[in-house]
Amino acid sequence: MKVRRSDRLIDMTRYLLERPHTLVPLTFFSKRYESAKSSISEDLAIVRRTFAQRQTGILETVPGAAGGVRYIPIMGQVEANDFIAEMAGRLSETDRLLPGGYVYLSDLLGTPEVLRQIGRLIATQYLDQKVDAVMTVATKGIPIAQSVSQYLNVPFVIVRRDSKITEGSTVSVNYVSASSARIEKMELSKRSLAAGSGVLIVDDFMKGGGTVNGMRSLIAEFDAKLVGISVFAEGNFSGDRMVSDYTSLIRVDEVDTKANTLHAVAGNYMDKNAARLEELAK
Amino acid sequence: MKVRRSDRLIDMTRYLLERPHTLVPLTFFSKRYESAKSSISEDLAIVRRTFAQRQTGILETVPGAAGGVRYIPIMGQVEANDFIAEMAGRLSETDRLLPGGYVYLSDLLGTPEVLRQIGRLIATQYLDQKVDAVMTVATKGIPIAQSVSQYLNVPFVIVRRDSKITEGSTVSVNYVSASSARIEKMELSKRSLAAGSGVLIVDDFMKGGGTVNGMRSLIAEFDAKLVGISVFAEGNFSGDRMVSDYTSLIRVDEVDTKANTLHAVAGNYMDKNAARLEELAK
Fold this sequence. Notes:
Structural class of chain A: alpha/beta
Shape of chain A: globular
Order of helices and strands of chain A: HEHHEEHEEHEHEEEEHEEEHH
Pfam family, one (chains A, B): Pribosyltran
Family (chains A, B): Belongs to the purine/pyrimidine phosphoribosyltransferase family. PurR subfamily.
Subunit structure (chains A, B): Homodimer.
Distance between the termini of chain A: 39 Å
Largest sheet of chain A: 6 strands, mixed
Number of domains of chain A: 2
Radius of gyration of chain A: 21 Å
Number of strands of chain A: 13
CATH topology of the largest domain in chain A: Rossmann fold
Oligomer: homodimer
Domain Bacterial purine repressor N-terminal (chains A, B): 4-73
CATH architecture of the largest domain in chain A: 3-Layer(aba) Sandwich
Keywords (chains A, B): DNA-binding, Transcription, Transcription regulation
Largest interface: A-B, 59 and 59 residues
Strand content of chain A: 25-35%
Strand order of the largest sheet of chain A: 7-6-10-11-12-13
CATH class of the largest domain in chain A: Alpha Beta
C-alpha cells in the first residue's frame, strides 16, 4: 500500500534518527513506502531543510548507484554554548567537591538528557573523521562512551583496571597515574579492538592525564590509531599534564578545599571547534 | 513565522523521540511552530497513527488544561521475537564460552544498535509502572542500564563492588555470591537514590542471582521499592537461585566445556509479556 507523504516523513525521520552515520539507499525508502523515487527525493529534501533549520543534523546525499542519504547528528553553536554554560553552572553547585579534588558527577552522568547532549556535542567534533571505536576506562567514562558511540554509531570498548575473568584473554599495559605518581595496570579484552582501527578516547574527568595516557599506550599495543581525546571535565592540575592535545567541555578552575567549593567554567571545546561550528551554522 | 505541516511533523517527531515518557503541552508546539492548536492536534493524530502502524511507540494524549502528549517507546511482538531469536543465535556462536561458564558479551553490549533494542525491549515491559531509577552493578550492566534509562527517561545508578574515593559517602551491604559461595560487599553513593523511589534492577548476566539479591538488599537499605528485575541473559545454574521473579531475554541452556560450546535460547521475556504485547498490537 502506498504510504502518504505525512506518514512517510514521520517514519523516515524516526528511521534516520535511529541510524546516525549510516548510508540508507533511496530504494530502501522507495520500497518501504511503495512510493516513487522522485517522491522520496522530495521527502528527503524536506527532512534535510528541517534538520538544517533546527540545527539538529545534516542529511548528507551520496550520489550514484551505490548512493543514498546519511544522517549526521550535530549540535549547533547556540545550543552548544548554552549546554556548556549550564553544565559549568551545575558543576559549580555546592557539595560537589569530594576529598582529593575530585568532583561528584554521578548524578549528571546518570541522567539520560545530559548524556544525550554530551554525546551529541562530542560526536559533532569528530563527524568527518574515521572513528571505528570509542574507548574509555571503567567505570565512570562508560556512560559518555556509550552516548558518543550512539551518535557516531560505532562500538565502544571498555578498558578495565581490575582483572575480571569474564573478558577472556586481555592485553595489558602499565601506566603512571600523574596524580598519585603510582604505577598502575589497565587491560582490554584482546578481541575487542581490531588492528588499524581509528580510536576516540573519552573520559569523564581528567586530572594529570595518566589514565588517558595509559589508554594511548593500549591503542599502540593494538596497532590501532588515536583519533582524538575528549573529556567531559578537566580538573585543576598544578603539575605537568601527560596529555596536551585534548578537548574538554568543562574546566574546574578554582577549588577551595577549606570552604569546600569549586568553580567551573567552559573548557576548550568552543575554541577548538569555533571554525567547525561556524561552518555548520551556514 | 508559521511553519509548514511537513516541517512540523519532522521536527515534532524528533522532539518527541528525544523525550520519551515526557508530557509535552500542546501549547508548546503551538508556540514553537506559530500554528493553531487545532492544526497541532491534527499533526499529532498523524504522528500517533504512524507510530502505531509501525509499532514503534504509543502517543498518549492527556486531556485537560495541564494535558498534552506523551511518547512511550515500545517494541512490537514481531520485532521482539526477531530480536530475541537473533540474540540467541549470536550467543550460540563459537568462542563465546569463557572459563567458569561465563559468556563473552562485550561485543554485543558495546554495539549501539544492539543496546538500543535491548533498552526498548526492557522498557516496554515497564512502560506503565512507576520506575524512578534504573539500578545496575558495575561494570557490564552499565550499558544496559543506560539504554533502558534512555527509553524510560529516568536516571540510572551504578552500584560498585570496589570502593572508589570519587563517589562521596556510600551505603554498603554484604551479599553472598551464589556461584562462589563467598561473602562480598557492594555499595552505592548515598545521594544517588531517594527514599521511596521505584527501582528497576537490570544486569547483563545472571547465574545464581547473588548479585541481584545484593542489589535488592541495597534497595531496602535506601527505603526504596523494587519494581522489577530484568537481565539480558540467564546462565545455566544447577543450584537454587536466590531470585525467582525476574525476566530474561536469553537463556543459556547447554554448556559443553569440553567442546567449548554453548547453546542459547529465548528467555522468559515473551512468556511474561505475552498479554501486554497482544494488547499493544491492537
